[in-house]
């Protein structure tokens, strides 16, 4: 009998039969509060009626309008709609299917446009599992060990980590920017450096928001040295952080923006956006893919953008994110093992730390499992696995946030 690969790691022992709103139901119809959103994907909740309707309509009209063979209306319409929410000037789009593929597309474009080879990535960052995107990933050695050699031309620079280094945010930013400056004079000269890629909130690496001064410091250095700034909004985009894009918190303009996950509420579609003058550096035929910009996924993405706008989900993410953060801080205040509660919008982390200051993955794992037993689905992250993260659908209500905080409090109490 065939079985799934044993290398697949399943976070919770649930067999999902159906989803509705922020809930998942198993085959016995037990209800779970889904605070994982399928790793930040089901932005409008599971099976939002408007997304279902748009996808069903498209399935009956045209499923696969292969975009290097023929063009189709949903992709043109999605491009127009994204134009309304993308940063000014980033008005040329190229579509693929996953975050990893979009990251690879961004790297190819940066190398083509600059004629330079090196890509600087942040230590602790996650950009995917393909060999190119994986080469930029350092959220934990489990995604790299035994797999190399990876794509060459990648150099890492530290991400500001005030909690880990027990310093102020300003000190962490100063240190990280100084290390980047040092990298440019020791390892990767600007003339060899095509781009720096950064997540507005370090995601898989531990849910660490990038301080605005860090991002503006990178922007300023990129401008000074002719290096492109690639902002990976795969997890932080489409309202997740309480602004439409995560980098909006820093008020800067990326050269290349990457979006995926929450864009289509669960259908696989991703994109890179760049200014015309930059995207035109990709020569004809160097971008493409059999399934990229799928018509059903594009229709679902348009419906998702409609729902995000009409139901004011960006505002809801900010409001409920604040409520959730306050609730989590309340739980942490009762349990010193939670050393830090942090995040932006509905992308929040609880970091478990032992009294001697070392990461406490064992208690985090017990709390994570105890939450699932109580009907609250969560994920862990961080290189040590000691961070329990919460990333509910953007439609979450105040009552659901309160219910989740209550269950989390019980779970932590049971785990310590
Ligand atoms: N970039 C970021 C910031 C991500 O969080 C992820 C997925 N967790 C990826 C890229 C890779 O996306 P995918 O799994 O769709 O390839």
TrEMBL record:
InterPro entries membership: Aminotrans_3, Aminotrans_3_PPA_site, Class-III_PLP-dep_AT, PyrdxlP-dep_Trfase, PyrdxlP-dep_Trfase_major, PyrdxlP-dep_Trfase_small
A Pfam family it matches: Aminotran_3
Record key words, sorted: Aminotransferase, Pyridoxal phosphate, Transferase
Pathway: Amino-acid degradation; 4-aminobutanoate degradation
Reaction(s) catalysed (UniProt annotation): (S)-3-amino-2-methylpropanoate + 2-oxoglutarate = 2-methyl-3-oxopropanoate + L-glutamate; 4-aminobutanoate + 2-oxoglutarate = succinate semialdehyde + L-glutamate
Entries under CDD domains matching the protein: OAT_like (cd00610)
EC number: 2.6.1.19, 2.6.1.22
Essential cofactor(s): pyridoxal 5'-phosphate
Top-rank taxon: Bacteria
MF GO annotations: (S)-3-amino-2-methylpropionate transaminase activity; 4-aminobutyrate:2-oxoglutarate transaminase activity; identical protein binding; pyridoxal phosphate binding
Catalytic EC class: transferase
Family listed: Belongs to the class-III pyridoxal-phosphate-dependent aminotransferase family.
The protein's name: (S)-3-amino-2-methylpropionate transaminase
């Amino acid at each position: 009998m065939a079985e799934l690969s044993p290398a697949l790691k399943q976070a919770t022992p649930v067999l999902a039969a159906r989803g509705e709103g922020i809930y998942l139901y198993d085959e016995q119809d037990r209800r779970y509060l889904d605070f994982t959103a399928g790793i930040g994907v089901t932005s409008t909740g599971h099976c939002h009626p408007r997304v279902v309707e748009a996808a069903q309509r498209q399935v009956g009209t045209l499923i696969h309008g292969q975009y290097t063979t023929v063009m189709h209306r949903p992709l043109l319409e999605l491009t127009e709609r994204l134009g309304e929410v993308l940063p000014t000037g980033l008005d040329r789009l190229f579509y693929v299917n996953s975050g990893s593929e979009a990251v690879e597309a961004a790297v190819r474009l940066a190398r083509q446009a600059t004629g330079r080879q090196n890509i600087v990535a942040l230590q602790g960052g996650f950009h995917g599992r393909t060999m190119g995107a994986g080469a930029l990933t350092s959220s934990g050695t489990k995604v790299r060990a035994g797999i190399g050699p990876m794509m060459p031309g990648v150099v890492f620079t530290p991400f500001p980590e005030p909690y880990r280094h027990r310093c102020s945010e300003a000190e962490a930013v100063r240190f990280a920017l100084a290390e980047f400056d040092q990298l440019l004079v020791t390892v990767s000269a600007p003339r060899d450096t095509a781009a720096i890629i950064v997540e507005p909130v370090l995601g898989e690496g531990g849910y660490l928001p990038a301080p605005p001064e860090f991002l503006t410091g990178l922007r300023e250095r990129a401008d000074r040295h002719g290096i492109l700034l690639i902002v990976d909004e795969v997890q932080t985009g489409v309202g997740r952080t309480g602004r439409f894009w995560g980098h909006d918190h820093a008020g800067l303009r990326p050269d290349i923006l990457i979006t995926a996950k929450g864009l289509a509420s669960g259908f696989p579609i991703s994109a890179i956006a760049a200014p015309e003058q930059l995207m035109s550096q990709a020569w004809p035929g160097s971008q493409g893919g059999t399934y990229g910009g799928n018509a059903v996924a594009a229709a679902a993405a348009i419906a998702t953008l409609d729902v995000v706008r009409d139901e004011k989900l960006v505002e809801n993410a900010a409001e409920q994110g604040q409520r959730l953060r306050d609730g989590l801080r309340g739980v942490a205040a009762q349990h010193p093992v939670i050393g830090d509660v942090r995040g932006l919008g509905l992308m929040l982390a609880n970091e478990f730390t032992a009294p001697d200051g070392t990461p406490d993955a064992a208690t985090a794992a017990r709390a994570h499992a105890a939450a699932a037993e109580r009907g609250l689905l969560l994920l862990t992250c961080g290189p040590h696995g000691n961070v329990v993260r919460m990333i509910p659908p953007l439609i979450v209500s105040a009552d659901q946030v309160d219910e989740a905080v209550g269950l989390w409090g019980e779970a932590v109490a049971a785990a310590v």
